[in-house]
């Protein structure tokens, strides 16, 4: 990987901004494959920990996931599954061939307890029939990826128009219709969590089907997702990652032609908030799209070209938060996988409530029961997306706990139901180096914007020169955005881009 500068051979130096899965994956790949040909690989991380949006925590001594929860599509093609299997981080059931072949297409599984807000346990039939309808329509919405024209701009509008037509065919009494619509509204909230958006009206219909689901029954890490990060960190030479180093500005394109201590001229200079400067030939930027939306204008000098600015602005980045509550005794059956509350009077066809702050908790899509009970005790994990999730972050634990106790009491019809004993929440919107949860393809954007975001910036802006600023992170993967495997693959993609330029793979057949 040497490059001739004057009469000397120089070895390229690479900086990586961000120690999430994309950044660590890129660092490991470069070091393993580029080895001694490299002049150094250093990762600058703003916070005091590695992992970014992979973060495990503890609630009453039980490991819980504050960020990424499942390996989506754990099967051969999924590099996160492969890595986790190689490091022995998964249980036997997750690794079985049978598990890897299940095709669930994103549908929720297992028995659930769905209560109405009037305190009735709803019959599974209504849940099943509305689930079938919703997921069939969602499948239809994916098919527009091949269409020349879309009937409406968003997934939300498409679903609502189709549901309005269905409702006209329903011959049920008014009460049943009302209940069916409340249940359908639950599926809208669930899909908001999946897409990481406030409303499905913000999610673009045309590109919706470009997101690709891998086979395999989604699985979790028994000892925490962060175990994967620990393995990656252990494989890097000590000191590769520098913590508490928030990057302020990436100077590129000879905007800061300073002499580094070694007497070499570098094309890139990375300036940290604390004033320290790092010099490199290439920088791989893996900061979340949420951070770029807020700081993109000042983060690069010279600024990003207009095509990239447009991509940053147009692509969506929303909030999906988790609320873990732990009970002394469960109020659900032992085999129950999800507890849900369908709010009386809600409907996807009605206007959303104007006062979201007063009834923010009604946006909770459902509570996943953490299994097995022998490991977790009695913990529910509530999922909430959008502006209500962002508002929830402004409340105290006591306020959230009290609101949820009220919800569970109304739903079960038991005003004496004991409140949860403990609570732990994520606050992804308030995280200054994340500013939300993950990306989605918003109305007026497309997969081309994802590709534009992923495009490297070349010295002199001419593609014939080597790339100086490269981009990785989940939001740069056209078909696996919003996932951990998308993040890891994007880091590998940019590492390979550099390895290929210098034609320097030492061990091209290495696993990483
Ligand atoms: C998955 C899942 N999952 C739940 C929740 C969240 C996410 N995801 P990182 O942010 O990790 O790293 C960047 C680093 O940069 C970070 O450390 C920063 O501190 C640092 N940084 C920033 N600014 C800096 C600066 N200035 N200087 C220096 N450093 C700086 N994914 O596969 N399964 O179950 C979930 C979930 C609550 C928040 C998730 C899940 C998303 C992943 O966590 C995420 O993509 C990756 O970890 C990102 O890694 P990275 O390296 O890119 O960034 C049709 C259609 C639908 C599309 N969606 C369907 C899929 C649904 C996604 N599932 C999500 C569900 C859950 C529950």
The set of bound ligands, ions and cofactors reads: FAD-MDL72527 adduct
What's the CATH class label of the largest domain? Alpha Beta
Average pLDDT: 94
**Share of helix, binned:** 25-40%
GO molecular function: L-amino-acid oxidase activity; polyamine oxidase activity
Cofactor: FAD
InterPro entries: Amino_oxidase (IPR002937), FAD/NAD-bd_sf (IPR036188), Flavin_monoamine_oxidase (IPR050281)
GO biological process, one term: putrescine biosynthetic process
Could you characterize the architecture of this molecule?
- By secondary structure, the chain is α/β, with parallel strands linked by helices.
- It has 2 domains: 189 residues, FAD/NAD(P)-binding domain (3-Layer(bba) Sandwich); 212 residues, Polyamine Oxidase, Chain A, domain 2 (Alpha-Beta Complex), CATH 3.90.660.10.
- The chain has 15 helices and 22 strands.
- A 6-stranded mixed sheet has the order 8-4-3-12-22-21, with helices on one face.
- β21 and β22 form a beta hairpin.
- The longest helix is centred in the middle third of the chain and has 22 residues.
- The chain is globular, with a radius of gyration of 24 Å.
- The protein binds FAD-MDL72527 adduct (6YU).
- FAD-MDL72527 adduct binds next to α1, α7, β15 and α15.
């Amino acid at each position: 990987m040497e490059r001739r500068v004057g009469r000397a051979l120089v070895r390229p130096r690479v900086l990586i901004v961000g120690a999430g899965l994309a950044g660590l994956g890129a660092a490991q790949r470069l070091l393993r494959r580029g080895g001694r040909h490299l002049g150094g690989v250093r990762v600058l991380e703003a916070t005091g920990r590695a992992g970014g949006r992979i973060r495990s925590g503890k609630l009453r001594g039980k490991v819980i996931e504050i960020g990424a929860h499942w390996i989506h599509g754990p099967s051969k093609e999924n590099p996160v599954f492969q890595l986790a299997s190689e490091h022995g981080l998964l249980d036997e059931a997750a690794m079985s061939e049978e598990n890897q072949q299940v095709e669930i297409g994103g549908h929720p599984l297992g028995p659930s307890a769905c209560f109405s807000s009037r305190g009735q346990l709803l019959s599974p039939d209504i849940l099943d029939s509305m689930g079938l309808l919703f997921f069939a329509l969602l499948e239809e919405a994916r098919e527009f990826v091949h269409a020349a024209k879309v009937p409406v701009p968003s997934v939300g509008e498409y679903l609502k128009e189709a549901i309005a037509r269905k409702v006209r065919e329903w011959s049920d009494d008014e009460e049943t219709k009302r209940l069916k619509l409340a249940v359908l509204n639950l599926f809208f909230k669930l899909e908001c969590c999946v897409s990481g958006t406030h409303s499905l009206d913000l999610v673009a219909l045309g590109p919706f089907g470009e997101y690709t689901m891998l086979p395999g029954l989604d699985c979790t890490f028994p000892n925490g997702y962060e175990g994967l990060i620990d393995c990656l960190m252990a494989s890097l030479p000590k000191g590769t990652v520098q913590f508490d180093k928030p990057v302020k500005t990436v100077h590129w394109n000879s905007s800061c032609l300073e002499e580094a201590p070694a007497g070499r001229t570098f094309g890139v200079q990375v300036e940290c908030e604390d004033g320290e400067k790092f010099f490199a030939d290439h920088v791989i930027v893996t900061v979340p799209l949420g951070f770029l939306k807020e700081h993109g204008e000042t983060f690069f000098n010279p600024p990003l070209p207009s095509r990239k600015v447009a991509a940053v602005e147009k692509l969506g980045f929303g909030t999906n938060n988790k609320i873990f509550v732990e009970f002394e005794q469960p109020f659900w059956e032992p085999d129950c996988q999800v507890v849900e509350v369908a709010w009386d009077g809600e409907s996807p066809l009605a206007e959303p409530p104007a006062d979201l702050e007063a009834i923010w908790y009604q946006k909770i899509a459902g509570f996943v029961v953490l299994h097995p009970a022998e490991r977790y005790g009695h913990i529910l994990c509530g999922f909430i997306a959008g502006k209500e999730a962002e508002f929830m972050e402004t409340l105290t634990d006591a306020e959230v706990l009290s609101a949820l106790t009220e919800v569970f009491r109304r739903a079960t019809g038991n005003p004496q139901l004991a409140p949860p004993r403990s609570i732990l929440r994520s606050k992804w919107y308030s995280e200054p180096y994340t500013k939300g949860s993950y990306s989605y393809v918003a109305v007026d954007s497309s997969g081309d914007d994802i590709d534009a975001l992923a495009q490297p910036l070349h010295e002199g802006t001419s593609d014939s020169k080597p790339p100086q600023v490269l981009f990785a992170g989940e939001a740069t993967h056209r078909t696996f955005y919003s996932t951990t495997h998308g993040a890891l693959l994007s880091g590998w993609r940019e590492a390979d881009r550099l390895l290929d330029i210098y034609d320097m793979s030492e061990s091209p057949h290495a696993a990483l």
